[in-house]
Amino acid sequence: MMFWFDRHRRFRDQLSAYIDGALDPAAATRLEAHLGECARCRTELEQLRATVAALRELPEAQAPRSFALSPERAAVRRPAVPAAPLAFGARIAAAGVAVALAAVLVVDLGDLGGDGATEEVTTPQMIAEREADESEIEAGGAAPDAVPEPYGTPGAPEAAAEDADGEFMRDSGVAETPAAGPEEAEAPAAAPSDGGIDALTAAEIGLAAALGVLIVGSLALAFAGRKR
Amino acid sequence: MQTEEAALIERSQSGDLDAFNALVLAYQGQVYNLCLRMLGSPQAAEDAAQEAFIAAYRAVPRFRGGRPGRSGFRAWLLRIAANACYDELRRRRSRPQVPLEAPADDDRPSAELPASDEPLEQRAERLELARCLQEGLASLPADQRLAVILRDVQGLAYEEVAGATGASLGTVKSRISRGRAALRHFLLARGELLPSRFRPSSESS
Q1: Same-domain check for residues B85 and B137
Q2: Residue B91 and residue B17 in one domain
Q3: Is the pLDDT of residue A126 over 80?
């Protein structure tokens, strides 16, 4: 009984596809055999067909007016169009800079003997690359979702730019603290081995710290660009 | 036709507004009707359609048509329109004082029937059926409503519905199946699927 019910239900679920001829031939043959012996499914099929026919016959409304865009309406797009490729280019560039700096930093810190730094550097680098990839996908796939209010859009890109700047400043400001971390951490380690902080090591540490700040800054820029 | 459209798309992508507006005129009927069936209100449909075309103009430089695995321009455009409808539905949910089925629009010209030679009684029946169907559509979950409208009202193939909704083929089939089943129940409960009522008007005439 249960078995019959399941089968019956499966056939009922196939009726819609059957109407569209979207059932594979074997399944269609089985369904037709079932329809031959099941009056309920025949009735349901007829009613579904009638429903679909009624939907097809729904009157088509005339568009109440032309939706063609006036040049003024279309001009709303102006700030967005140069901004989009620019932002994308900036993102790519920022990611590239981050990767390049990371490579330099790896070599640099490698000289200082900081093995742990390698891991910490490659991670943000990979994130930067992934972000760049994702933003490319989003640009195509999520385009329909990017439906900002048509009104007030002219101001939006500027606001976004300010926002991005603010974020950049904020992020790089915050970054100063962790970037200074390695300097303090490395200094005692480097100091005893050389018997003192000679000028070269100090310069290298300074350079490393500066590069760290630049990397985080570039990443912040990449993130900000992603938000447009 | 196909290549002409491709040329219009290409020109639109480089910012040619006239070319884009030619595409608007070609598709505004379908876009508006999709919005009308999704939202049930001509005013909301007009707003959503306009919003969709503005969004499409901004997004068209990023449209990648004709690539394998990518859907065509119509599906892309209808997807933008569907998103504009979802935005409107979200707005309604956050502003509940807006009635979901705008009753004030009952005497609107949406049921413009082309047939003036149709017997009056039959015409009234079809109008009643159309009104009932719109109510039934409004009762469906938005995803099912969208799939059923695209497939049955607008006549898109399953693949194109998938492209216009961003759902897989299996999901599309199941949404259409469930939506149709729910509509069947809806019409049945209102006596709109009685054989005497339906068959003669659609098959014998």
Answers
A1: no
A2: yes
A3: no
8 Å CB contact of B80 and A147: yes
Scan for tokens 């970037």, then name that residue: A179
Same domain, B73 and B172: no
Minimum-distance CB partner of B17 among A59, A71, A150: A71
Q: Which of A191, A156, A188 is nearest to A77 (CA)?
A: A156
Q: What is the DSSP string of B117-168?
A: SS-HHHHHHHHHHHHHHHHHHHHS-HHHHHHHIIIIIS---HHHHHHHHT--
Token couple for A149: 């209010």
Structure confidence at residue A200 as a pLDDT band (50, 70, 90): low
Whether the per-residue pLDDT at A139 is higher than 50: the answer is no
Region class of B194: left (phi > 0), else alpha (psi between -120 and 50), else beta: beta
Could you say which of B104, B136, B160 is where a domain stops?
B104
CB distance B121 to B159 below 8 Å: no
**Do B146 and B85 belong together in one domain?**
no
Residues of B in contact with A53 (CB under 8 A): 198, 202
Number of domains in chain B: 2
Among A158-167, B74-83, B147-156, the minimum mean pLDDT is found in: A158-167
Whether residue A15 and residue B177 make contact (CB cut-off 8 A), yes or no, is yes
Residues B128 and B45 in one domain: no
Q: Give CA–CA dist A54/A44, Å, rounded.
A: 15
CATH number of the domain enclosing B46: 1.10.1740.10
Are residues B130 and B76 part of one domain?
no
Q: Same structural domain for residues B6 and B55? A: yes
Q: Is the pLDDT of residue B98 over 80?
A: no
Write down the residue that tokens 């693949």 correspond to. B159
CA distance A195 to chain B (A): 60
Q: What does pLDDT average to over chain B?
A: 85
Question: What value does the mean pLDDT take over residues B96-104?
Answer: 52
Residue B78 pLDDT greater than 90, yes or no: yes
> Which of A10, A41, A67 would you mutate first to test chain B, the one with the most B CBs within 10 A?
A67
Average pLDDT, chain A: 63
Using CB atoms and an 8 Å cut-off, which of residues 86-105 of chain A contact chain B? none
Domain that holds residue B97: 1-104
Predicted confidence at residue B119, as pLDDT, reads 84
pLDDT score for B8: 95
pLDDT beyond 80 at B131: yes
Distance from CA of B87 to the nearest CA of A (A): 9
Q: State whether B37 and B56 are in the same domain.
A: yes
